[in-house]
Design goal:
The complex is a heterotetramer, with two copies of chain A and two copies of chain C. By secondary structure, chain A is of the alpha/beta class. In chain A, 27% of the residues lie in helices and 20% in strands. Chain A contains eleven helices and 13 strands. Helix content of chain C is 36%, strand content 18%. In chain C, helix 7 packs antiparallel against helix 8 (204-226) and helix 18 (540-552) packs across helix 21. The radius of gyration of chain C is 27 Å and the shape is globular. The chains are: A alpha/beta, C alpha/beta. Residues 56, 98-100, 127, 129-131, 138 of chain B line the site of one magnesium ion (MG).
Amino acid sequence: MNEMTKITTTLKDWETDQEVRWCPGCGDYAILKAVQRTMPDLGADPSNTVFISGIGCSSRFPYYMETYGFHTIHGRAPAIATGVKLANPELDVWIITGDGDALSIGGNHTMHLLRRNLDCQLMLFNNEIYGLTKGQYSPTSRQGTHSPSTPYGSVDRPASPCAFALGAGARFVARGIDIHKGLPDVLKAAHAHKGTSFIEIFQNCIVYNKDVFEEFAAKKTADDTQLHLLNGEPMLFAKGQKGITLNRKTLQLEVVDVVDGDWESAGVIVHDVTNRSVAHMLVEMQFGAFPMALGVLYDDPRPTFEAAVVAQNVASSAGKKPDLQGLLNKGQTWTVTEDGPEL
Amino acid sequence: MNEMTKITTTLKDWETDQEVRWCPGCGDYAILKAVQRTMPDLGADPSNTVFISGIGCSSRFPYYMETYGFHTIHGRAPAIATGVKLANPELDVWIITGDGDALSIGGNHTMHLLRRNLDCQLMLFNNEIYGLTKGQYSPTSRQGTHSPSTPYGSVDRPASPCAFALGAGARFVARGIDIHKGLPDVLKAAHAHKGTSFIEIFQNCIVYNKDVFEEFAAKKTADDTQLHLLNGEPMLFAKGQKGITLNRKTLQLEVVDVVDGDWESAGVIVHDVTNRSVAHMLVEMQFGAFPMALGVLYDDPRPTFEAAVVAQNVASSAGKKPDLQGLLNKGQTWTVTEDGPEL
Amino acid sequence: MATVLKQEEPNNPHPEGAENVVVRFAGDSGDGMQLTGGQFTLSTALAGNDLATFPDFPAEIRAPQGTLFGVSAFQINFGSRAIETAGDEPDVLIAMNPAALKTNVQAVRPGGLVIADEGEFGKRNLDKAHYDSNPLEDGSLAKWQLLKLNISQLTLDAVKPFGLGNKEALRCKNMWTLGLALWMFERDREPIVQWLKSKFAKLPEIAEANIAALNAGHAYGETAEISGDGLGGGHLQHHKIAAAPAEAGTYRTVTGAESISLGLVAGARLAGLPMFFGGYPITPASAILHHLSRLKEFGVTTFQAEDEIAAITAAIGASYAGSLGITSSSGPGIALKGEAMGLAIMTELPLVIVNSQRGGPSTGLPTKTEQSDLYQAVYGRNGDAPMPVIAARSPEDAFYCAIEAVRIAVQYMTPVMLLTDGYIANAAEPWKIPDVDTLERFPVSFMTEKPEGPLLPYSRDEKLKRPWIKPGTPGLMHRIGGIEKGVDTGHIEYGPANHQTMTEIRRDKILGVADSLPDQDIALGKAGARLGVIGWGSTFGPIHQAVLRAQKAGQDVAHVHIRNIWPLPKNLGDLLKSFDRIIVPEMNTGQLKTILRDQYLVDAKPVNKVSGQPFTIAEIVTAIEENLS
Amino acid sequence: MATVLKQEEPNNPHPEGAENVVVRFAGDSGDGMQLTGGQFTLSTALAGNDLATFPDFPAEIRAPQGTLFGVSAFQINFGSRAIETAGDEPDVLIAMNPAALKTNVQAVRPGGLVIADEGEFGKRNLDKAHYDSNPLEDGSLAKWQLLKLNISQLTLDAVKPFGLGNKEALRCKNMWTLGLALWMFERDREPIVQWLKSKFAKLPEIAEANIAALNAGHAYGETAEISGDGLGGGHLQHHKIAAAPAEAGTYRTVTGAESISLGLVAGARLAGLPMFFGGYPITPASAILHHLSRLKEFGVTTFQAEDEIAAITAAIGASYAGSLGITSSSGPGIALKGEAMGLAIMTELPLVIVNSQRGGPSTGLPTKTEQSDLYQAVYGRNGDAPMPVIAARSPEDAFYCAIEAVRIAVQYMTPVMLLTDGYIANAAEPWKIPDVDTLERFPVSFMTEKPEGPLLPYSRDEKLKRPWIKPGTPGLMHRIGGIEKGVDTGHIEYGPANHQTMTEIRRDKILGVADSLPDQDIALGKAGARLGVIGWGSTFGPIHQAVLRAQKAGQDVAHVHIRNIWPLPKNLGDLLKSFDRIIVPEMNTGQLKTILRDQYLVDAKPVNKVSGQPFTIAEIVTAIEENLS
Ligand SMILES: Cc1ncc(C[n+]2csc(CCOP(=O)(O)OP(=O)(O)O)c2C)c(N)n1
Ligand SMILES: Cc1ncc(C[n+]2csc(CCOP(=O)(O)OP(=O)(O)O)c2C)c(N)n1
Ligand code: SF4
Ligand code: SF4
Ligand SMILES: [Mg+2]
Ligand SMILES: [Mg+2]
């Protein structure tokens, strides 16, 4: 996000008077709280913060944040955010979207937002389902998902949000889980990143896709199923007894056992958030053979879109004054007087 | 593409009576000829072949192929092709599109075509410009491109078609150059691949973006600027005096010198078209520090969308007969007779 | 439905002996009111009554328990004669909690019976419903007969034997309520018992508990009556409503979403085509995608696309390849399809576009009903882009409209818009199932032979229809697209004269569809009446009943219901001009009115309602009176 | 333009002494005809003639050389009095090759002068133009005065000294031709010499070669005349057309695309707002994006979006953030914006949508002009979604229409559609440049202070306008969106009464715009005329001239030109009803006609042309006669 004078707020300052209208037990509640808890730590200013969403259960989010909010139309939040940020680069812009909103109807806008690298945070609530429309499968639903529109199971291969984001040119990619205590740290890193911060959050739709993420989200098995990435730290999990390495022959990632903490000789990779090649491998790690990679997978800033636009606006205006009359009179003109026209 | 009985044709059989309406010297002519020359070698049947395009100079292509052809609307060719192929999986479907058509307005459909893995060939004519609308910059134009809509140079970062394709889940990614003799081989490999074959073709728009690809497309410097990938072969260029290796420490690709042909000890990578991790690195290789990777970058088939749809249609119809009356009478019915209703 | 039409009385002050009764079930989204209503509907149908229903549920998926916006209601109007609306005012309201009472009681006719579950009227629920005092106690409900029952407790007692958790146990409340309702109208419990058994086949104890609750509710009615127990003013009484005279035949209940799906399948088979359905979920259109996705054995391929544009363009691709392409959405999604409709018009491919209208503009009121997409249907495209438009008036009619849409699409090689709305989509009504052999076939013939001389993909038959040529057909290779086509050849053609000709052909072809349409009939009354009430779509019921009342009151009124919005029936102009005055009631700000005034220069006066709720009969009666005085 | 209106004579058989002359330059896309035309236009303007032009170029980027579909033409009508159309029939045609001759000669008036470059009439070119024999030789051009010149050779000779390659040398042909044309009408070459020098500043020898060709062409006229050289029937003669009486002031030539861009910039400044322009290239709308992208110093940010939907939604986002959001496209792109327009209507944010209409439906005829998006503009959205619509009639008018569109958008917090078309966008005409200080300002005031009591983002002023609140304003945080809004509060609200009220507010707010509009004036004739000819958009010129002619012929005809399509001026109904008969000439199948008949029940008869070409005066004269007899 952009430079701003940090101000002091409390969680309460970020809550609205609107009744929250999600199903009881929905993962969205946890995410809302995590965001409301994080904002004061960021020193963010409600008056200078804008939450922009598309359509979906997740997209109702802005109504519950005591900031400026725009609940737009399905899939278009990234484009609207682009207009908002170009019109006022000082604003702290957050995009809230779902797996259908961002990757189905909105895929193209998400791609171009990432390509241009507009400075904002995009939080994709991935529940692998269309919640608001009552449970149809989404582009992230696993093959075989039974839903009202796929009574015999879905046949298409799911999209990987983070892989898509990298392919589209993302410079910041992170993953979190709705109810995890780690979520605020991910949000802080995203907010600290200048440019489009892409955050996939596994969100539990208890009504239409209950516990699809249990296999890796479950607390009790978390040690073995989650790989928490920290920049500069080795990629270890299972209480440090396992790690991720690159097989130097096959040039593919592998899980290796780490014997009494000697991860170096096991060839465990040290996480470098700026290594794009490794980032590609991490986002494509298949859960099962591998743990689920969480935290900041990739973070390597580049100049932002709005900064470049503003810079060009300024540079190309330099020395010119906005003389409307002069503009109208541009080109070859002639004047008509009583005695006819002349150059 | 799909199984089909090979038939015998000549180049002439694939030409239409329509006057070709591209600018004299346009790279599209060379691609047209390459395709028309390749079709007989594929044993393809004009009656069973469909070329589907969006809008753009490139998208006029179908008018010049003596096959079935559908010149649709801007950006939607992949979606239309999906309907065509699902309605008749026997058809041999080719999608012709441009960098604007496929990656700007059509980005979302391109993404989902690749994700679903519909069996077809998608040829993206990348001239890094909007030709038909007279030369505005496109999502693949390099930063600083001066165009009617960017008189002071474009500021957004270009998309990489092949990186985008991989991120979207592509199982076949190849690159070619309009006037290169190697193009037909790429087309053959694409046609042989079952699933969506994504082919980026560098195409010279001599009117609005003349020779943007010269730095690597030029014949005379080709040896040093092009890396021709062959499955199972080491990644060598510069007449075998240079190669591509993976720095086992930084885990990044590097160019290495190869001394009298001993590429092994230089650690040059042997191209494995099924290695997705390496594919990601190849598509992101920055030209300049590296040569331009050409040929088949990645080829690792997965079941196709239409096959899965058909299989499910068949499976879920098994044993049921399409009894319309029975369908209407489904659920709890009652009959009304003279003496009132009964179950 | 298929009954000899009779009139719906303004509700008789006493249910006893009334020709029809209006009952509304209202509760929390979690209370299963839609289910209760659905089963009561079935038993009503089985009792031989005619009926109409109006399910009205919240926009939220599962709104927090007990809140005002979380209330879900189901209204049914049933009687011993033709029923065409869900009824203006409920005679009986069953309110499962304070929020349900608050949002629904005002609709109940004075003197009507209000049954409330006092077990739910604790402080928390009263607060959530913004009640300062308990309405069951403070006398604020005096103008109704109030009957307080602790349904929650009674249900818990009834299901205790099955050892369910408190939560599961309370889930049976709706069955207790249904049992009571069945008793009130002397209904057979058996079909519902059967339904419960099959529904919970895998959970026998749940099934048994629900059945026990159902029986307990029924038994309560018995005993309450015997003991003459009429607490709180309300008095339980039961009586049978005689069966409505109906045509002999096999019946079922059907919602609009179901009947449209069935009609499309029937249409495809009558045309002899496989169906390709491209959809993207949106309320209230999704139900059609859901229904069709279960009918693969009928040659139906359903495709949930990435967006509405992909849904329609994939359908166009399928039609190009020889299937019947169909797409469906609601307002915002239909707006996105406009450009692609133009492609189907230019390439002259068959396509059916179903629009389940909802409240607009923009996201608007997704779960409410409206008729405000008629402009979009008739005029909402770039260029001169004419397209036939058909509007269904009821779940039953929707079946035949769907077939009609398919017929026009394939017989004229054109996209066709089929309009329905949220009310029709969700409302259930009894449907006399047609004998499929009596449905007229219109088999499609593709061009398969290379003609003498050049292949002319844009040559025309007497209907101005161009040939349909499937890719894959040996020797008939040709190219089509969205750029203007040359007459006959279909080649790209920019010539002025050619564009003039093609534009006229496209216009005349669609106008020619009118040749295949029946004359416009008069639903009620006759030509030359003092007032013509012109309607379309789901307003049929209330308009029809209102006109009936006006006629009974001796007024010279006629009802004309237009099904073919574009092109209009050939005799419509003369018919309209025969009336002294014309009013057009619509659930929009006056859209059909624009077309009628433009086409016939008749002074059609708009009568508009845009509240997201269907017209009541009374509202239209009022409009009639105003325009006759 | 700003001249005292006079009539365009049906072209006088002999240019000599004619009040106006119509000249058409036609050649291969590569021959630079548009450039030639542009410079000739400038010199015409400098000569004080009034003028109108019609550039007509091929859809192909650069069609193969010599082909029929590769012909590019530029027509100019200039005279010693008011000119409002590009002229029906050319008096002079300059054809640079056989294809150009074939596609253009039929338009030339019998007896007109045809100048052809015989150097290009070799076998290959004749074949490409599908000529079996050489028309310059076979007498097939008998009904015109033919003048064969080997312009190619003459040019080569003229530029030999500069040692250009043959290809470069031949590129100077158009300047040779221009030189000849300048001589024919006694024009000063100096301005063009200056222009060439600046254009080719970096390539002096190219500049010199072109100047040499220009002079050679001019000299050829001199000598040919002296030597009385009139080969092939054609006879070169030259004469000056007197200057047209014009209001005193500073003038320039302007195309519609330029004037709209300038008008939008002016509008933003009059409102005191920065401008955000979101566009996606499409013919013929792109030119506006191109112009604005060069004006950053005026607080203009241009954004080439990934598609039309992103273009309009980004513009909506910018308006939300306090800029003036603008988007622009043509038919197919406008269709894609429909859903988003609904969002702007629901959130009541200012937005200007410019539609440069082209031939439809679908991709249609991208480079041809049409008025067939009026339905889409007024009716093409889901739900009841009213939006103001303004249509420009000429390049000059477009400047003021753009300002008007901005004014309405910000004064009423609403999207506004501005209609122009391919003809206006490309045509150039002299424009009397206004004094910016005379333009009325309408500064916007944002809400910045927290009000007493609750913040009400949907409260209203007397215009029914809601406050505009910028994010970033301390303390005024609030949420808006596409779901129905509660009255005043703007909170999500599904209530029936609220939706009814809000729908009426949205309708009444837009109807209220009419209060800010001037009364409808009569362009020619008076109220009560026997025939009213009602037009809109770019048909102004031909209609105006046709009515002038009819009046001269003693007929009681009036011309009414409607600029505000929605809402319509308040007095329009009375005015229309005052005419015995009404015809509505439109370049579509009858769209404005629908609105007039609906709104006023007047028997407005359509006069339609959908050929992609503007009306000729003669066509409308004929329509007038038919409707008066
Ligand atoms: C143009 C348009 N198409 C479709 C819809 C219906 N719709 C609303 S939300 C939604 C998808 C919601 O899924 P997701 O984005 O994953 O959000 P979730 O509800 O799961 O949080 C759809 C299809 C719409 N509102 N607008
Ligand atoms: C809906 C719509 N928007 C915009 C256009 C205008 N348009 C036609 S082709 C094109 C882009 C062409 O660029 P590309 O896809 O790269 O094809 P190329 O001409 O370069 O081969 C655009 C913007 C259109 N025809 N339809
Ligand atoms: S449907 Fe799912 S995602 Fe939506 S609110 Fe309910 S639980 Fe949450
Ligand atoms: S504009 Fe460019 S891409 Fe288009 S035809 Fe001409 S050279 Fe080819
Ligand atoms: Mg979701
Ligand atoms: Mg291109």
